[in-house]
Amino acid sequence: MKIVIIGGGKLGYYIAEAMLDRDYEVKLIEKDRARCNQLAELLDAEVIHGDGTEIEILSDAMSGKVECLIAVTGRDQDNLVAAQLAAKRFQVKKVIARANNPRNLEALRKLGITHVVSSTEIITKLIEQEVESASGRLVATLNRGRAAICELLVTKNSKVAGVSLKDIILPKFSLIISILRNDELLIPQGDTVFTAGDEVVAICMGDSQRKLIKLFENK
Questions:
Q1: How far, in Å, CA of 90 to CA of 68, rounded?
Q2: Which phi and psi (to 5°) does residue 75 adopt?
Q3: Which of 3, 63, 90, 214 would you call most buried, defined as having the most Cβ atoms within 10 angstroms of its Cβ?
Q4: What is the CA 71 to chain-centroid distance, rounded?
Q5: What is the Cα–Cα distance from 81 to 76, expressed in whole angstroms?
Q6: What confidence score (pLDDT) does residue 120 get?
Q7: Selecting from 3.30.9.10, 3.30.379.10, 1.10.860.10, 3.30.70.1450, what CATH number does the domain 122-215 have?
Q8: What gap in Å lies between CA 97 and CA 173, rounded to an integer?
Q9: How far is CA 94 from the centre of its chain?
Q10: Other CB atoms within 10 Å distance of the CB of residue 54
């Protein structure tokens, strides 16, 4: 699968890393030249310096068939323009846009961007559900808030510390997709043992968000 990511911030970088680990072909567009140079050293991917809302830059990135475009810059208007160009001009089947301001969620959806993610929206939902935990936070929402990408921290007192993945009963509709350990990205296997300091990324749906965060809390 060929994927184009617009925005080389922390989220764009982690998405690129995760996709590369799954053997996807990734191109990343970033405005800041210094950040481009840094990303080119960190990622085994083509990093393009430019504005992802410009047709010439997008055309360069769209060479060959691109199945997915992900716009995760810090500006909602840029994400909207890039997403619309990808969908309407380049006929990309799956387009995902980040909404930094939750007030823009409905506007983005009404303009035809069906896959809109917002970390603020899912955090608000968790507060309403009275879910509070220092061990976990929400990175983004998926499928109009029905699913979420969670980031979980393993402390030395966490219930999962020293326990292998195969020995943990994960909540239904949750999946652990990566572990960041000492700046090294790991794709967990059944025999992977959680250790203090691990930053775990998981995808959750529905009530599994709250249950998974509780699973990673201290004993």
A1: 11
A2: -120, 120
A3: 3
A4: 11
A5: 9
A6: 65
A7: 3.30.70.1450
A8: 23
A9: 15
A10: 14
Q: What is the pLDDT of residue 117?
A: 78
Q: What is the pLDDT of residue 14?
A: 92
Both tokens assigned to 4? 């184009």
d(C-alpha 63, C-alpha 204), whole Å: 33
Cα–Cα distance between 11 and 201 in angstroms, integer? 12
Secondary structure (3-state) at 67: coil
Tell how strand 94-98 and strand 115-117 pair up. Answer: parallel
CA-closest candidate to residue 69, choices 39, 48, 44: 48
Instruction: State mean pLDDT over 2-28.
Output: 93
Query: Crossing angle for the helix pair 119-128 and 208-215, nearest 10 degrees?
Result: 80
78 close to 52: Cβ distance less than 8 angstroms: yes
**60-109 per-position pLDDT tens digit:** 999 888 999 999 999 999 999 999 999 989 999 899 998 888 788 877 77
Comparing 100-104, 177-181, 185-189, the range with the smallest average pLDDT is 100-104
Q: Is 3.40.30.10 the CATH number for 2-117?
A: no
N-to-C CA span, the chain: 41
Structure tokens at 35: 């950040």
Locate tokens 């068939």: which residue?
65
Q: How far is CA 125 from the centre of its chain?
A: 18
- Residue 114 CA: distances (Å) to CA of 111, 144, 210: 9, 8, 25
Q: Kindly state the average pLDDT of the residues 3-28.
A: 93
